[in-house]
Here is the input.
Amino acid sequence: MTGQSNTKDKKSRGSKPCPSDIVFCLVCGLLVGICTWFADTSAPFQTVFSNVNEDNYNLLVQGFSAGQLNLKEDAPPGLAKLSDPYDPNANAPYLGGKIDDLTYYKGKLYLYFGVTPALVLFWPYYAITGHFLSERAAVAFFMGIGFAAIAGVLLDVRRRYFPDTGKWIPAAGTIMPGLALALTMPVNVHETAITCGFAFAMLALAALWVSLHKLTYPVAQASSPASYGRCSPVALPPPPTPKVRNQKLSNHRLFWLALASLAYGLAIGARPTLLFGAAILLLPVLHALVWCPRFSVSRMAGLLLAATGPIACIGLGLMLYNFERFNNPFEFGWHYQLNSSYRAPSAHPFGLHYLWFNARLYFLEPFHLNGQFPFLKSAPLPPTPPGYDLGNAAADGGILMIYPVALFALAVPFAWRRKLQGTALGWFAIACLIIFMAGAVTLSLFFASANNYELDFLPGILLLALIGTYCAEHTVARFPGRRRLVCAGWHVLMSYSIVFNGLANVETRAESHFFLGNLFLAQRHFDEAEAEYQKTLALFPECADAYGGLANVLYNQGRLDDAINNFQRALEINPDFVEAHNNLGFCFLQKGRVDDAITHYEVAVQMRPGAVKYQSALGNAYARKGLWDKAIIQYQKSVELQPDSAVFRAALANAFCQKGMFDNAIAQYQKALAIEPDLAGIHERLGDALFRKGDLASATVQYESVVKLQPGFAQARNNLAYCYQHTGREDEAIAQYQKAIELDPGFAQAYNNLGDAYRQKRMASQAMASYQKAIDLAPQFVTPQLNLAWMLATWPDPGVRNGAKAVALAKHLNDYFNGNDPKILRTLAAAYAETGRFAEASSTAKQALALASDPGLIKALQAELNLYLARAPLRSTAN
Here is the structure.
């Protein structure tokens, strides 16, 4: 219960507005304007890349208008083909700025962010105006509503409880939460939901404040400001008649309590993490039980119904909404989220092991300074607990470091017995504490952290701090010196917080340019992206992310050395910038600096041992170096981390092939195809492994699959033809070789193989023409020259043979290889014999025998040497 302002006090104020009230209103208006301006300038990319009707909440409104619960946006068709569409490595090609961070369920896209903004603002605005509202305008609107609620409560707190305190406190106190929060709030779909939850939570607090003051049970005359607004348990007068009491309860308290319940229900609909703060709705019921025990059971039931009815109805509505979308009343869509940094279905979003880590970040983490404007430096994170989302973590300074004015909240318990106990203000302070504790504990248990999450609990602690400020100033009101000291201290702390947030806002502006640069980069507008990254660095020279983004631009422009320099600069600022290590390794690999690439990849793997892309990148670097055993280890780790990745299994199989471990390779290729059966490249590599193992029949099946999947793949047709040729299907082989040449007229290898197939069919002229075409296309290609020389020297038809030309070709090849190739020497010997130079043929064959190691070649050379010694030429149709 609370007392009412006495009549004399009301008359003394008169009907004219107080100058302090005018200042207060001007300050509130200024804050709303600042919030609107910052909301507009913190999202410049919305004006560059997207139409307002493509904002996620407007897509949801379009879906509602069309009679559906999913967004009016088609999901990328490729997602449906993935065995696991929530795998960040598999779905990465389909995620963009608009798809990433949405919910994907049974082929449709949903919004897992709270539905309240769509229902209370976006849809009504569209229905009334026929136009869509931008998310930045919605953020400004919700922030303004929340500030207005805070401001109204603060002003009423002073009028009711602290009329003898300084008139500057309401205005100055509103600046603190208003400006400080507005300065650091970026704008996108996240902030739309967060600020909506903030606005309705503050409206619920304001309605709760009014409700606590509508229990007008008569009280003893307050004798001092200290008892103002409190029932006196000592001088309690007789209770009013039930008729009067019940009428007062029904007409006022029930309405405002129901309004608070409705508002907080809408806050939960926007931001489900606010759920446990709903306990504040029971405070008016407890208040009535403690101070008005004579209320009838029916009146108490009505009070309880007002507190729980509206929020229960909203809760049932949310459960029905979730059930219709996901067949689960408690699923908001988070577990079906598409995300580029973690796999939501298997993530554990809440856990006790996150509690201390997040609490330290939110409250105790010191901020870091440097010597360059804006003097703030991003700091590396402390060691993170297992399962933490490293892509969403903030270490920019804890609340007690940035908002030391929050320490004034400690004045509340000190003033409890003298000022707050039993008053509506005391109960309201408990409500602020509940809001703060519920939000802080819930988010400290979450597996990620972000500055914008603080809006769930920061207003609660700041309201407590401002109530503590009133109490502190009231306590020392009789001591002018102490009062000035308290006021000065409060001003210093408040100014410090605002200046700090002002500097942090420079970083926020820089981040806006950085995100705009990212979007330009994604759109491959490299000049514009470079300009935005440069703007970021002009505002915030120590932004490692901006150097990384600029390096990506330079790499895409072909300026590899400049890209390397910028990645190195990013690592100088932030040695733990794991993506910069990874990208720098990739650049070094492009430059052929494989050892340097391996060094940076190894650092990335050490920093993120569970990140599969870094493991696989290191495996690629080892493979490039020829360190196949190490490459196999990294690829095996990649497969362990992501067993349903066909790409990683194929990479492991490739490494096994390089080691000659064909059975292992074939097993991995087969598992990869079980995951992605339509990957032509893996069919081809499996065919190669089977061919090298000697299983031509199985290899043929794989090459036929490749040709079916990719009819224009010339190499696959060449491989298929080779298998046909060596399994006695020469005609089919010739047809496939000809198709490969038709697809790739410069395919010298196919011409050579076609010549082999023609020779196998005894079609000498066609074979020789094919060999000659291969030589014309690739003069350094040895095999067709050797084949042609062999035919000219050994073919049974004298119209085909040309010994002199054979000698010239074979002698040219032999000189090129310094007489060290036994096959070339064998061909030269046959050419000498064809021209009647049997002594030279014999000596050349002996040289070939001395170099030969293959048993088959040795046996053939011995037989041919005997012919030459007998002064007989060689005749053959074989290769």
Notes: Residues 775 and 785 are 7 Å apart (CA to CA). The chain is about 65% helix and 0% strand. Residues 480-522 form the longest helix (43 residues). Strands lie at 103-105, 108-110.
